Amino acid sequence: MLFRKCRFWFLPAACLLFFPAAPARSETPLPKLESKRLLNDLQITVATTAGASDRAAVGLVVRYGSAFDPVDKGGVAHLLSRMFLKKTADRSAEDIRAELEILGARVEVRCDWDGIRFLLTAHPSGLERALLLLYQVVGEAEFAEDDFEQVRRSLLEELQRQPDPRKRIHEQMEGALFGGTTYGRPLTGTPESVAALALGDVRFFYRKFFSPGQAALEIVGPVDPGPLLERATRIWGIWVRKDDVPFTFAQPSRPAGRRILVEDDPGSPAAQFIAGGLFPRREDAEYVHALMAARILEGRLNRTLPTSLLTVGSEGRRLASPFYIQGQAAAEQAVGEIVQILDAVEEMKTGEVTPEELGAAQAELADDFRRELGSPEGLAHILMDAELYRLGRNYPALFLDRIARCDGAAVRRAAGEWIFSGGELLLIRGPLDALGTRLGVLGPFEPLIP
Description:
By secondary structure, the protein is α+β, with helices and mostly antiparallel strands. The protein has 15 helices and 13 strands. The protein has two domains: 222 residues, Cytochrome Bc1 Complex, Chain A, domain 1 (2-Layer Sandwich); 191 residues, Cytochrome Bc1 Complex, Chain A, domain 1 (2-Layer Sandwich), CATH 3.30.830.10.
């Protein structure tokens, strides 16, 4: 999902917010929000959705993710995220499952680089009870040795499996692109780092980083916000605040020129390839323009190489983020396809963007975003992202407005600044005997160590 990186500025007291109308292609209404900041600095927002619905969602985001893993403890945040729902001060795993079944609810926990988020979905009639359960799962979590060993063993089994080739080369690209920074290691850790973790490492991360001062609670559904805010305040107001930990990580550096890494895969009839570079931080003003440029570039590449398995992807993180073009082709054709891709990138930076391309990209991005707005789960994620990346409390309306206001000049400028600006990192895995001298067209290369 492209729209996961955003945040509201906190207000010191309860407030009622209405989003102004934005240019739209659909009738999905923008939500009405009522927010309150508690004495422990937890921000609670209730988003009242229009119409009757049998679904509501509660999202909680904590602004400390895998970027905060200690240097020698890679994977600890991810492992911690898999330890929740096992035990609390008053509930066993069986008790938690039974309560979720009674409520007809489910909870998902996800760890990424910038935060750990919880998403609970339930019927609106059970929201107050669900709020209490989620607080117990998060604020009163306990971590037992046998649960830790079971989760670590399961994670190690996953890490030791041979990854999908596309996933593997993507991870290698990110490791090379972000080398020397906190993003330059696997988010889930390595088999060696995870094997070295102890239960004390998990408990330490939880005690240090799980604090209401760097968290936000988002409640979405067809609800009366006043009574629900009062109930949420009573439940979550007892969560004890801890000292904030500053985000002081070094920014990644752009690739300087073209760096090519090649891994020999003898006997394979195909070659995997990925070209990577940096993308704006999620809160950067150019982020939306860069998204538009990436979407238009993807359309051009699909027309140029309609039979290729191409993916144009990006992320928005707190630091400069990854942008990549990934594909697969017959070994004899791979270099030629890469040349066409790089030529299309250069044309994107210097050529004109047609009104038809601009309008199609605007419509696609706006429609994707409105689909997220249209479900309780999607809206909860949008609000958590908005809180995580400090995008302003009017973010849903502002995002749509920025899409509508984006013009061809802004797209071309963003492409010049962010689509392989200054160079790119190019990784290729395939049979060297088939790739042969064709690689020389791209430039000198280094061996890619598996």
